[in-house]
Amino acid sequence: MNDEFKGKSGKVKVMYVRGEDESDKRGHNPRTGKGGSRQDGSRRPSRSADNRAGRGRDEGRSDSPWRTVSRAPGAQQDDKPDHGGISGKSFIDPQQLRRQRLEETRVYGENACQALFQSRPECIVRAWFVQSVTPRFRDALKWMAANRKAYHTVDEAELQKVSGTEHHGGVCFLIKKRMGMPVSDWLATAGEKDCVVALEDIGNPHNLGGIMRSCAHFGARGLLVDDAALLESGAAVRTAEGGAEHVQAISGESFAAGLNTFRQAGYTIVTTSSHQGTPLTQAELPARMVLVLGQERDGLSDSTFQQSDLSVSVAGTGNVESLNVSVATGVLLAEWWRQNS
Question: How far apart are CA 91 and CA 98, in angstroms?
């Protein structure tokens, strides 16, 4: 087959070998029944037969073993959309795909995915497993089959492509993201003992995962953040080792406005400092408080630090400037739990 020649119309001329039956069908009109060969086997003469007879370029046309059809350039090309390593997906509208990607995220890690399935299975859209972990996800597989959720058993290479990391733990879920809860809704259900952790400009997913793990361990159920989606990243959820399912993102009109709303509701705003403040071992941490933490390099902004009702410090050798923010969170929450449990 030769499909490289283009006619004047710009269409690619595709030439196929004519079958034995097609010579009789040539010129036949299936609607009217006219044209083609007669019943006695002779051909119906063409009106322009005499004209064609005088043209050397058309001689032998009816005996040619080739037939020619036209198609638009690229008509047979199979342009498959890129779904970011997700196999088995049919084509969807690009705008719909963009909307879904804003609403969905991928989480991975065996403990993280087990906890997610136990906590909110309805958010699972699709799942991938390596064969070796499927026995430990037997209940999840049964649930997904019963609820028509797509899942795939894949090899390590494909799972790495789907999850975007080699630290996938043998499983990856595509899930619907959780949205941040408004401060007012949180306060409507908060108890007399409530510790909320507020994170200013902390975006490292491994630090976020470590913080969520400490929060889950010491009973701090709320995290005030600017962007709730940060807590749903795959790396953060995997590092939390299931702790992400025991904390809730909280959002205000702004970070400062959220802190102010908590203060008006009777919460104590507690900040930390490496060089000043009440030593943690001497501080009395209230049952209802917001523990505010900032990034390690710059710490809290001046405006946030000025909102503090109590500043505490964690004493140490002084060999390093400060603790990692996720480690510091664990130390502070452990003391809050000790005093209020």
Answer: 13
